[in-house]
Design goal:
Radius of gyration: 20 Å
Order of helices and strands: HEHEEHEEEHEEEHEEHEEEHHEH
Number of strands: 15
CATH topology of the largest domain: Pseudouridine synthase
Oligomer: single chain
CATH class of the largest domain: Alpha Beta
Number of helices: 9
Strand content: 25-35%
Length: 250
Amino acid sequence: MNSHSVDFFDGILLVDKPSGITSHDVVDQIRRRFRFKKTGHGGTLDPQATGLLVILLGRGTKISQYLMSGDKTYEGTIHLGSVTDSQDADGQVIREADASGITRAQLESAFASFRGDLHQIPPMVSAVKKAGVPLYKLARKGEEVEREPKLIHIYEFRMVDFTPPDARFVVRCTKGTYVRTLCHDIGEQLGCGAHLKQLRRTQSGPFNINKATPLADLLNLTPLELMQKSVPLHEFHQFLQPPSSPTRTP
């Protein structure tokens, strides 16, 4: 490597994650392919979900907490009339109902009711820990335990398209928000049940999917090409500066 190799080892890589693999799988594949000693990510995506996954390289792993604390934006599809045990399409259907009577206006009203501050109960199929044990491990045993509600904030939650029984939406929210739980809770509110059919993350903190590269393409790059795709750690300070506050009139 040349004298700039430190930028390659200490930086941030924006990956467009495919569906069907875990965030850890992505980290592992990049680490093995390019023989990194330290790699991590800046916020998990469920296996089913696609989109922006921020990969941390070398000393970039030290800023993981900052990246995880950033707001997120997703594009998704909610499927009405079907409840699953995981609240998304990966789970087993546990209840079905007729959703043909649900109108666009009813669904838009439901979306609007979930904007603002919410106390959300994490799903059982999640990495949240109870007495040191991830909930998903308890869920596999058929166990269900009481979970503490978490305060989240939904800045934006709007419908993009309605083709019954599916509706496409955009949601912008704080860290720790379970979009599949939002879909599940909307289904309960409407009385027909629902689950998250599809999810894609388009924004994570200051980073946008437009700057991300599909995982398969990244794995075919040379180390030098990968370095050129990454954001060097010494350039990251520009993302740490808070936005200027609007001028207030006394």
